[in-house]
Amino acid sequence: MKIIIGKKLLEKINTLFDLSRFSKIAVLTDENIPKSLADTIQKSINKKLIKIIIPAGEKEKNIETVKMIWKQMFDEGLDRRSLLINLGGGVVCDMGGFAASTFMRGIDFLNIPTTLLAQVDAGIGGKTGIDFIDIKNGIGIFKDPIRTIIDVETLKTLPKRELTAAFGEIIKHGVISGREYFDLVTSKKPEEFDQNELIKIIRQSIKIKSNIVKKDPKEDGLRKVLNFGHTIGHAIESLSWKTNKPLLHGEAVAIGMIIESNLASSNCVSCTAEDFLLIKKAIINAGLPTKIEMTNSEEILKIIFADKKNIRGEILFSLPEKIGKVVPNVIISKTQIEKILKIIMSVN
After folding, report:
1. What region, left, alpha or beta, does residue 94 occupy, with left being phi > 0 and alpha being psi -120 to 50 degrees?
2. Partner of 118 for a Cys bridge, out of 123, 132, 152, 284, CB 3.0 to 4.6 A?
3. How are beta strands 49-54 and 147-151 bridged, if at all?
4. Active-site residues: which are they?
5. In terms of CATH architecture, what is 2-157?
6. CATH-assigned architecture of domain 160-346
7. What is the tens place of the pLDDT at every residue in 248-284?
8. pTM metric for this prediction
9. What does the domain layout of the chain look like in residue ranges?
10. Extended beta strands in the chain, E state
């Protein structure tokens, strides 16, 4: 999969690769994405662009929305030689990839992630999917886009909260890769990085993730280190959708990293106190949340037990031993998780 990163790329998308081989081109986007972005693509490709617009938000990432996408694709006459362009954040990239990969047994799709979080995470790696019965990404397949185009100009209209939330994943990449990158991405507050610095961060985060994915595309072993912060994070993110304060993905991952680092420091994976404090300080300094604003640990545990990474009923975590080393497949008991959750919840 080829990833292209730069400025003003949407204006010259027709020069980046050959679009003439596609019978029809559709763009999937949501209601929050500025109309001007799709219009820029339309002008660039000099070909009719079918627009599919869906409601925005994680709560829309379900099979009913996919049915709506499929129906419009059929109504517009898309065939197996058509292309779907996913223009948006993680929800659009994940769900669009899933819709394209299953439409007529699979058509090509191209990702244009427009949020920083999607640019360093959801827009790459070949995971597609939807949420199901409160399980985040519970249904999906592995399928790479034919290209991922990252235009940092799309970040100009990104709300501060969305920019900050992306650093949940970026800090995670720092914990996985080592102190050099960790120190870089925690050297300033998210909003203080300029466009050129963000390009450098995006490139490095993609390199970290891509190197891992190449070695383990189907998440049989090594790729599981990318799940640090996600076992707990996905559970609390899913439950937050039912409240009046839903969490963004990166915010949930930040809380998950703190809880899971705590688990690591109290189990066989011995995260040092110094590194645990560095991770926690980085999350706080970035402006990310550190606490769970919910009180039912049983609901959290129920979702954790349904996590797709578990095997034979055992709960498997990816936990940090230190900054630069995350260990996958660490078995943690229900009792141990309950203990840590109660400690975290008690400080709210």
Report:
1. alpha
2. 123
3. unpaired
4. 105, 127, 169, 209, 219, 223, 227, 230, 234, 249
5. 3-Layer(aba) Sandwich (3.40)
6. Up-down Bundle (1.20)
7. 999 999 999 999 998 887 765 667 788 889 999 999 9
8. 0.88
9. 2-157, 160-346
10. 2-6, 25-30, 49-54, 83-88, 108-113, 127-132, 135-142, 147-151, 316-322, 325-331
